[in-house]
Amino acid sequence: MKTYDYLLSYGVKPSVQRIAIMDYLLEHRTHPSIEDIYLALCDDIPTLSKTTVYNTLKLFVEHGAAQMLTIDERNVNYDGDVSLHAHFLCKKCNKIYDLPAAQEEERMEQFNMNGFAVQEIHQYYKGICPSCAAEEE
Amino acid sequence: MKTYDYLLSYGVKPSVQRIAIMDYLLEHRTHPSIEDIYLALCDDIPTLSKTTVYNTLKLFVEHGAAQMLTIDERNVNYDGDVSLHAHFLCKKCNKIYDLPAAQEEERMEQFNMNGFAVQEIHQYYKGICPSCAAEEE
DNA sequence: TTTAAATTTGTAATAATTACAATTAGATTT
DNA sequence: AAATCTAATTGTAATTATTACAAATTTAAA
After folding, report:
1. Which pLDDT value is given to residue B136?
2. Is A79 part of any domain?
3. Do A117 and B127 touch (CB under 8 A)?
4. How many domains, in total, are found in chain A?
5. What is the distance between the alpha carbons of residues A4 and B124, in angstroms, rounded to a whole number?
6. Cβ separation B107–A102 shorter than 8 A
7. Least packed by Cβ within 10 Å: which of B45, B104, B125, B132?
8. Residue A101 domain boundaries
9. Which residue is nearest to nucleotide D26 (CA to C1')?
10. Residue B55, domain CATH
11. Do residues B31 and B89 both lie within one domain?
């Protein structure tokens, strides 16, 4: 599907900037920060403003087209993959990895039964990634 | 156990400020922010500096006497309960609730087998809390 | 008591994020 | 196609959270 239509499917009105940002998110599964996205797209869209990147990501999240990760205390990261999956933050290189999700159906039921209306699930793990662990030798 | 000895048990050298901050954490299971702690202790320790609160919490986390929560994108929160448990952030009132943890032994093994050395587990849920849901009627 | 080391403090710097008004672009109407 | 309206983008300034760091204070040791 073209990104144009992909955005429409989430109820987001496409624009040059929005398409470029969503494209970046879908093609770079690196969980980029606002800064990452801004710097990467500056070349193609020289007039791009960082405020637009903020606005656009907020819009994406509101429409469910992206998810915000708060795993890294230094800044927020974004993920174009909105399916349920876990994240691993390496404390050494600060890269964020995708990991398979734990099943949550039962827990969701439990929590909802107790009156907690869950809208977002985040499974975060922190430690040392395989690549950094290998380097330690 | 006195907080003095409690800190020692984590290898943290006690001081007036450190005892006051740890006491606050242990007595207020509200997952306070730096600001919360600072404002709460200002009365008792008028000379308290916010930098000290930052330094102290960093020290506690390094020694395993507290854990840092990155559930709220606006700021970092701290928890004196370092046992494994889940957290729920209400998007309306911004309060953070404790919830029972999902078992993680199997997954830890899996991840470790794949070379991810897990040091921290965070189970975050976001949505509307029972109290705010009740108010909506 | 003197000295040394660690802790605390206050200020200044940095970095992330938000507010907001002005500009620009896109769509609609005439 | 020109004029009008609306929405999106931009740039700047303000705000907020956090960190850096040197000076002052406290605590422990000699």
Report:
1. 77
2. no
3. yes
4. 2
5. 32
6. yes
7. B45
8. 85-136
9. B15
10. 1.10.10.10
11. no
Q: Are B65 and B7 in contact (CB under 8 A)?
A: yes
- For residue B137, pLDDT over 90 is answered with no
Helices assigned H by DSSP within B1-137: 3-9, 16-27, 34-42, 50-62, 105-113, 130-135
Same domain flag for A36 and A91: no
Helix then strand count (H, E) for chain B reads 6, 5
State pLDDT tens for residues A2-37. 999 999 999 999 999 999 999 999 999 999 999 999
Is the Cβ of B4 closer than 8 Å to some Cβ of chain A? no
- Under 8 Å between Cβ of A77 and A32: yes
pLDDT at A137: 76
pTM for this predicted structure: 0.94
Q: What is the pLDDT of residues B65-120, one digit of tens each?
A: 999 999 999 999 999 999 999 999 999 999 999 999 999 999 999 999 999 999 99
Q: What pLDDT sits at residue B1?
A: 81
Question: Which residue is closest to B130 within chain A, CA to CA?
Answer: A115
| Contact status of A76 with chain B (Cβ, < 8 Å) | yes
* Residue A36 and residue A94 share a domain: no
Q: Look at chain B and count its residues.
A: 137
Q: Do A128 and B122 touch (CB under 8 A)?
A: no
Interatomic CA distance for residues A126 and B90, integer angstroms: 23
What is the chain A residue with the closest CA to B122? A124
Question: Nearest nucleotide, C1' to the C-alpha of B77?
Answer: D17
The verdict on B126 touching A (C-beta cutoff 8 Å) is yes
Q: Is residue B79 part of a domain?
A: no
Say whether both B54 and B98 belong to one domain.
Answer: no
